[in-house]
Amino acid sequence: MRGARAKDDGTVTRAVTAGRKGEWTSRIVNPPVERASTHLYPDCATLRDHATRNRDHEYFYGRRGSAAQWALCDALTELEHGAAGTVLYPSGVAAIAGALLAVLKAGDVLLMTDNVYDPSRSMAKGLLKRCGIQTRFFDPLDLASYEAAFCASTAAVLLENPGSLTMEVCDIPALARIAREKDAVSLIDNTWATSLGFPALEHGCDITIQSLTKHVGGHSDLLMGAATASANHYRALRLRAQQLGQVVSPDDAALALRGLRTMPLRLERSARSALQIARWLRERNDVAQVLCPMLPGSPGHGLWSRDFGGGCGLFSFTLKGDDDARCRFVDSLRLFGIGYSWGGYESLALPVDPVKHRSVMTTPADENTTVIRLSIGLEDPADLISDLACGFAAMELA
Ligand SMILES: *Cc1c(COP(=O)(O)O)cnc(C)c1O
Hints:
about 400 residues, about 40% helix, 14 helices, alpha/beta, single chain, five-stranded mixed β-sheet, binds pyridoxal-5'-phosphate, 12 strands
């Protein structure tokens, strides 16, 4: 890019300019995709130099990346105020594992929000337990019991906002402040909002994690994760990822960078459509509750308005009806795919059962309702609403 990087540009502008370092992009718009395991050196002295320094942006061996991966790291770092660097991982789950293993050791206790993404819970119960790390789950809406859950061995807290499936919004600045007072590292799974919608480090977190598979990729054709950290933690993240052999390919990094450039537009559009659909759902008699923090009057809307600068297309609702009715509803949808993941350009509907994934929180689902999660894509919201109306009709006809 010509001229100095403007730190004061807004995040939408930075999504266009970030990571476009002059040496990579003065002659072409995007950084080159360099497929390479071996990097060559002019002589032995240079080889030794690079081996000992282990610096960012320095060619060494394929596992330490090349221009495309570095550009993506830079871009994600520049989008997060207060960040010193970003590490890439082959998936969001790998990013969560890599970040937790960078800050925890045997004998430590981890506090994990009870509405966490379910594979994070499995990681705690399997991998972390085997490593001698104990996990305690807490209700993020209950600050007093959260504070009481800390002990002398609590070394880290894993947060998520809004919570997976049930979309509760918690007071991250307060939760992160308490963690800091107790000398624990706070990590947040910030996949829902991204740095654009929720500046996690500014809100007091130490490490922010994203599944780039979702909004950054945006086209349902890529798996990747990232952890972005302040200076205190970046080095530890990077070293642990190197020890675990975590890498992403330059081709995948280029795909993620391409996605990042249009992410603000896609987020804005899908959030607007989601809000319109959430409003429509709320008026229906067959819907018990809409779990969409962007919707005024919905649970968590107050904190969402206070702390978030934007939303996205993902939300849930509870349907008056049993699992059979729910399946009839979802099966009859024409525009909504049935499948995991979210944040793609296409809409998805998924029956979910949060009760199975909670140990201390109650969920909005009861014996008379079931939960459906919608990921709203870039289709015309009027068409999506017609499709949902057909789904409700199919449910009633049976
Ligand atoms: C999908 C998801 C992940 C995991 O991402 P992958 O790239 O699929 O491994 C982590 N956290 C949340 C909140 C997610 O929705």
